[in-house]
Structures are given as C-alpha cells and as structure tokens.
Specification:
This protein has about 350 residues and is an alpha/beta fold. The chain contains 12 helices and 17 strands. Helix 8 links the parallel strand 13 and strand 14. Helix 4 packs across helix 5 and helix 4 crosses helix 10.
Length: about 350
C-alpha cells in the first residue's frame, strides 16, 4: 500500500508498505480522507514535543471498513471515523472517564503511525460509524471535537463573553462551539483573512486584529467591546508562549483561562494579576467520545460550515511536494484534506 512517511523534519517520502493485518480485536479501514492539522505541520517542522521519527502522520481520519470482528459496532462497508487517542482504559484518568488525558495514551500519527496511508488497522473501540455526514465532514470531526471539548471544559454558558485568541482551525472550532452554546464570541488574531472567515462564515460577534506594539490597539478594542470588564472565558489556541502569557490580561475577574494549545517550554503569569482575578486556569487536551458526538449532531443539523473550512485538497502521491506549501500564510489554508 502507498504510505507517506515523515522521515525527519522537512522530509516526506512516499513508500510502499505491506497492507496491515488486522488482529482479532481490530478493524481494517480503507482510508479515504485525512485532514492535515497543526500537529502534522509541527511534526514536519520538528516542533512536536511528543514524537520520534520516522513517523506516518495523520490522525483526522475517515474511511470505509474493510473487515471487522463480529463483536464490533461497525461492519464491512460502513463509513467510519477514527478517534485517534488510543487510551488504555485502566489508568486513573480512564477510570474517571477522562480518556482524553490517559496516562498511557498513544495518539495515532504522533506516538504511533497514523493514517497517511491507504489502509490502517485500529482497535475496534476507537472506530465509529459516520452516518449522515460526508467523508469530508467525517475527516473534520477530530479537530472540531477539540473545540467542542474546550467549550465543554470551560462550561461556556449562554450570554457569556468569550475571547478566542488564535484563529487557526482549533481556534475556529472553539469559536463555533462557544457560539453554539450561546456565548458572545470575539476572535483575536494577526491575520485579517482568518478574521474575515470568523466573521462571515462562523458569525463571530467581534474580530480584533492583533497589535503587539506599544500602542496595543487590540487591548483597547477588547476593553471597549466589554465595557472594560474583559471576558468571562478566554481560550488560547495560538501555540505561542508570548500570546499564552499575555492572554491572562484579557480574563475578567472571576473568569476562566483555557489553554488549548501546547508549547515545549514553561509559561508564566503575573501572580498578582492571576490572584486578584481569582482566575480558573484550565488545560484542554484532545477530546472524548461525547465531544465527537456533539460535533456529529451539529454537522447533521447543518450548524457547521464545513465547506468554508475545507480550503485545500490534495492526494497522497503529491504530499511530499505540496505539503511544505501548506505552511505558507499566503496560501490561505484553514483545513486541507488528503484524498487517499
């Protein structure tokens, strides 16, 4: 089968590998779509903290079942999506239902080879029917579920003022699900093109262009939007240390600060500012099966503008040549889908 391997940072190759053999508890999937996400871009650039090379990337996966054990909830011919967080089921987090932060987690495409291949074997407990949505939509479930999880983790409520810092796909996902929970959503980013998508396609209530100069016009705009009270919930989806440290400034007194993004280094805040706000600081990692169901329900109801999010399409064979171009901000990539 055709497989794309990231041999080392900056190097992708197309290789032929044997088609995988399914074990007694495994589902064999003919991969049809793979979403390219920030994690894949970080792997390609050598900036992913949980990875060893070489690696087959790809964890936003949709396909058709080739074979499945009789005990599985799916059967040959079913259209499916994959929940790529392979949790152990018995650690302290799993016992509490927090499989997204399993102690022994193995994420496809990061800790184990992923789906940038024609076939993939996945344990049956992580393969689910994708009825009522297209293959393209099924491949977008995972990144949207991360946003749904973040909104649920923050317990976003109707009427709250929410700020999303970072208008990449994950930030957009958080915006979508904060909005679906009835929040007033503001998005802060340094790219006017992405802010336009947030405004027009995602119906963000306000967008603000980043300004890190001494003038800090963005902070003034955020203060004006909220009557100088700032935001009940702030999500960081930037993956940028300075942005993550600055974001605390925009949390209202009594508010929540949710870090969706991750960086290699330590981050720090002004303790007086943190304490005087009595800030609730939350990490948001991956997603749970319930989050995927939340996204599926929203997709089926036509509440997610998936066509506007899917800006680029490519094939497995052209990945080595085309993939670096996805890093160019001028390309306008939001979500690229690979057809296998």
């Amino acid at each position: 089968m055709k497989t794309v391997i990231c041999e080392q940072p900056g190097k992708l190759t197309v290789s032929e590998r044997p088609r995988p053999e399914a074990g007694p508890d495994d589902v064999l999937i003919r991969i049809k779509r793979v979403g390219v996400c920030g994690t894949d871009l970080h792997i390609f650039t050598g900036n992913q903290p949980y990875l060893a090379y070489p690696r087959v990337m790809g964890h936003e996966l949709a396909g058709i079942v080739e074979s499945a054990p009789a005990s599985a909830s799916v059967k040959a011919g079913d259209q499916v999506y994959v929940m790529p967080y392979l949790s152990c089921g018995h650690c302290v987090a799993c016992r509490a239902g927090r499989t997204n932060c399993c102690v022994n987690i193995r994420v496809l495409g990061v800790h184990a080879d992923g789906g940038m291949a024609e076939y993939l074997v996945v344990p049956q407990g992580f393969v689910f029917k994708a009825d009522g949505v297209t293959l393209d939509q099924a491949a977008m479930l995972e990144f949207l579920a991360i946003g749904a999880h973040a909104a649920a983790r923050a317990e976003v409520k109707h009427g709250q003022r929410v700020l999303v810092v970072g208008a990449g796909p994950i930030g957009m996902a958080a915006s979508i699900f904060a909005k679906l929970r009835g929040a007033q959503v503001t998005v802060l980013d340094g790219r006017a093109d992405r802010l336009e998508v947030c405004s027009k396609a995602l119906q963000a209530d306000h967008t603000v262009l980043l300004d890190t100069s001494e003038a800090a016009t963005d902070a003034k705009a955020l203060a004006q939007i909220t009557g100088d009270e700032f935001f009940d919930v702030v999500f960081d989806a930037t993956g940028n240390i300075k942005a993550m440290e600055r974001g605390l400034e925009f949390v209202a007194h009594g508010g929540k600060y949710v870090l969706i993004s991750i960086v290699r280094d330590r981050i720090s805040f002004s303790d007086p500012e943190f304490h005087k706000r009595e800030t609730t600081l939350l990490a948001s990692r991956n997603a749970t099966p319930a989050d995927f169901e939340t996204v599926l329900d929203a997709m089926r109801a036509g509440k997610i503008p998936t066509e506007a999010l899917n800006t680029h399409r490519l094939t497995l064979a052209e990945l080595p040549e085309t993939f670096p171009k996805l890093l160019d901000p001028n390309a306008g990539v939001i979500k690229a889908l690979v057809a296998c």
